[in-house]
Amino acid sequence: MFDIVVIGGGHAGIEAAYIASQFNLNIAIITLPNIGLASAPCNPSVGGVGKGQVVREIDALGGLTGKIADFAGIQFRTLNESKGYAVQSTRIQIDKEVYSEYAEELISKVENITILKEKVENISKLDDNFVIKTDCSTWNSKKIIVTVGTFLNGKMHTGKDISYGGRIESESSSSLSSIFTDIKTVAARFKTGTPARLDKDSIDYSKLEIQESDAQVSTFHFENDPAKRNLRQLSCYLARTNEKTLDIIRENKHNSPMFNGSIKAVGARYCPSIEDKAYRYPDKNDHHIFIEPEGLNTQTMYPSGISTSLPSDIQAKFMKTINGLDQCKILVPGYAVEYDVIDTTCLSYGLEYKDMKGLYFAGQINGTSGYEEASGQGLIAGINASFSLLNKGVFKLSREESYIGVMIEDLISNTRDEPYRLFTARSENRLFIREDNANLRMHSYRLKLGLNKSIDAYNKQFVSTHFELMSLILENFISPTDEFFKKHNIKLARRMSISELLKQTSLDPIMTLTEFFEHLGLHVPRRTVESLAISNKYKGYIDKANEHNRKLSKLDNKSLNWQELACSENISFECKQRIEKIKPETFGQLKLIEGIRPATLAAVAGSNL
Amino acid sequence: MNFFDSEDPIIACSTSNISNAAISIVRLSGFHDLSFLEDCFSLDYKSIKARFAHYGSLHSKSNKLDDIVLTYFKGPNSYNGENILELSVHGNVLNVNRIINFFINNKNFRRAYPGEFSYRALRNKKLNVSQVEGLDLLLNANSNFALEQGNSLLSGELKSSYNNLYKNFINHKSSLELSIDFLEDIGESESHRQLKDSFNSLYESLLSLYNRSLANSCNLVAPDICLLGNPNSGKSTFFNSLLKFDRAIVSNIQGTTRDFIKENILINEVRYSLIDTAGIRNTSDEIEHIGINKALSIFKDSFFKILLINPLNFSIDDFKFDFNTIDCFVFTHRDLIKDESLISSIKQKISSRFKSGSIEPDLDGPIGAKNFGPIEPVFFNLIANDPSEEEISSIEILVSEKFVNLSNTKPILIDRHVDVLRYIKLLLDDYRVVLDTESDISIISSELNIIGHCVSELIGIISPEEVLNNIFDNFCIGK
């Protein structure tokens, strides 16, 4: 009997299993044979806008993604560099093979995780536990976390070629519906697509714009030196489509499964295939394509921006019209995959299926897209399954303090009609939720886990140093005649606090603070300096925004009795239907439900429910 | 003490109960069913049909209270969604009160708080907030114009102007988000251009609403015509003439009018308040002094300002305020003036007090309200005691035209909206500076969020989902 069985060994699966194992529970991961753990079936990168923050949150909570990404990183970049610290995000291109191998290594080293490479055929409930039948054995478990990604009834399309599987060269699991007939899925199947993979030796790089790895970019994992690079660094390249490329695509509309009706599934509007772009924007022919290496030793290059499901010969044809790709060779054609997705409004804050206790869902099965989103959910599901076994209540991250919190609440509050991806726009608190202060934000949450690992000591130290130094810079003043300025050639108008000095627009806060600490002879770690300088810069604005938000969100934490609401005579019929479906637990959640009338909110706000 | 979630049955007189009328309507709401009528109404309550008029008598034990006509509106098909009973009763004030008290003392009703029926309509989603405000305007309008505004709010005309503001706001917010989350897809210069363009559209749509809100709302809903002048300048005489009856006391003694006198006057179907004030002069009399301060204060805020001048006794220095705001100068005691130059020299003095433009000395001079400021001032030469019909009606025409001009700009009258619009403009002016000078886009975004909260007070909450939807629908992004 296992305590928790995780079904699926992808990004969500390994995070769930790893964090659960920290509680000394008996964990198993069941994954299809011949597939490595945490493989990267799509874009070989971790991080990015909105996602880098998630990776840092996972790291601050004791998860794995940041550590593995650093280890396998072959190109490091900061996105939105010129836009201000709050929106800067780290993005790491990874070596897919190294990533997967390292993940496997880390998981195998954990004594209480058993890795089973078998195909699951049936899951049933026996009293309070679950019985899992695979093609070769039977297992029992108290809790199950389902992280099967795109494998549920996965159907892949490349032009007319249809095959079954969650991705190339894998079998598909049979539909979840046949395993649990009572589980509600979203009516529409979702789709995701991936571009063709090109032979790296068939590309003329001289015709493309180069993007080198940036040595200044900091690593994700707290134990790593910010400048540490484990592998040799590679560059990415920028190519562009042109009129000829788009002409071919437009001429072949009838051959595209997305547009000739073979695929009825819903794709994400923010991740359109090249066909989507071609048909929706008939006047635009110049699209960016980022050519990314998939590994130090892999032959394939990943061209980001032209995911497609056109027939392979057409793919070859339009690729060759691109400057620099005229001689390119396609090693694996691009394909689209449609799959079943769970209706996440049936899940609680802990990602537990409300009508079947003990069953959890995390990752792309919930209709999200992106490895980081999956990892974040895996972490939450893993913690909550463990907490449930240890009678510790629900572990919930606030949407005011984390992107993971935003994601979970968005997912369980509304039925998704397209794949969900994190953008910074989803958070109302962008100034506060940043990469640099993840440890500050996550500290109190990690404490709730009650564990005693290196991350716990690190968080504690980070937080106390932060506040000590913050007092230091607020309370200490510096005058224009100070030695410090002569050395660094800065002109100061009058005497001011260090905090104010750092806010001067002519100075770079991080550099100035670093130099200042050196000047004082203090040895402060780079991550601490960065976080302090940036927090200081935004403090005034954050306080102002909080003031405004407080007025609006006083009500948000008010907990509701949704059953009484669903019978209330003061609420319209449609609103009651939605309340019954989603079962909101707080006023904030009620607000998020699509279609709730202001009058309903007013009625609930004034009531005692 | 609030009634927000009260479900008590309530009762009130829905027609004015200040003086006797032929019929008054007493309205009851929130009762569970009609069974309470069992022992007090002459008809069997079970036979009462909704939306039909029933004639019968109300009695308390063996005392007959009144013969009434009763109409039952069964919820949710009623004004506020609850069960409503409307009783048309004889409109004697005492009778109405007796009937209301009867229900309060014997039938578990309580007196409704002001606005409580409408509040319940809001709560039961029969009306939205703007409609309630429109209703308020409708009920309290002093003029056709305000009546129309009330109507248009009830039907949502203002709402569509606000929707335009909303759309522009979302577009600007989207362009901001675009430059954060999707910079790699659209490029630096394009994102910059969109930011600028969308802000300009936003500012323009706000500005047009803002200009509409500048008109002093009080002035249009209940406009005052105020008479000001030195003592014995003929104000009270003039007042009585306009009013067409002798309301104010007139005498030769300076300081006759000490308090202000306010009467209603109808001009072109618009009701104004005509106000006579104490004569402005330096005085040691405390009461007169109070009256003078009052006069100046009323004059300052009134819709149409008339300064009356007795050329023989005009002290221009007593009037320290901006002469640009005065709509009309009236010269009185014409019959006592022998020297024309006296009048022209006074006109000179007045001219010099003007900050801009010249004055039109013509009786029939053009009248045009430029912004919302005063019309070009007009001078009248008047006989002391007996202005002619024509002269009175020309003044009335002046007043009317100013009112019509102002109304034609479709000002916004709801106080709440006016406040919010003015606040938003202030915020946007500051924000424009931030947009131009700040390079950290997250700070810009944070400032815009604060503005967003204010905008949502007019048009509803703007969620991140909506912004994202707008981006996906209208911009070419994504890898």
Walkthrough of the structure:
The complex is a heterodimer of chains A (609) and B (479). Chain A is α+β, with helices and mostly antiparallel strands and 609 residues long. The longest helix of chain A has 28 residues, at 526-553. Chain A contains 20 helices and 22 strands. In chain A, strands 1, 2, 6, 7, 8, 9 and 20 form a seven-stranded mixed sheet that branches. In chain A, strands 14-15-16-17-13-18 form a six-stranded antiparallel sheet, with no helix packed on it. In chain A, strands 11-10-19-12 form a four-stranded antiparallel sheet, with no helix packed on it. With 479 residues, chain B is of the alpha/beta class. In chain B, 46% of the residues lie in helices and 15% in strands. Chain B has helices spanning 93-106, 116-123, 129-140, 144-155, 157-181, 183-186, 188-214, 217-221, 235-243, 286-301, 340-352, 389-408, 415-437, 441-459, 464-474, and strands at 10-13, 23-29, 53-60, 63-73, 84-90, 110-111, 224-229, 261-267, 270-276, 304-309, 328-331, 378-381. In chain B, the strands form two sheets. Chain B has a six-stranded mixed sheet. In chain B, helix 5 (157-181) runs antiparallel to helix 14 (441-459) and helix 5 (157-181) crosses helix 15. The longest helix of chain B is centred in the middle third of the chain and has 27 residues, at 188-214. The two termini of chain B are 58 Å apart. The relative contact order of chain B is 0.09. Chains A and B meet through helix 16 and helix 20 of A and helix 5, helix 6, helix 14 and helix 15 of B.
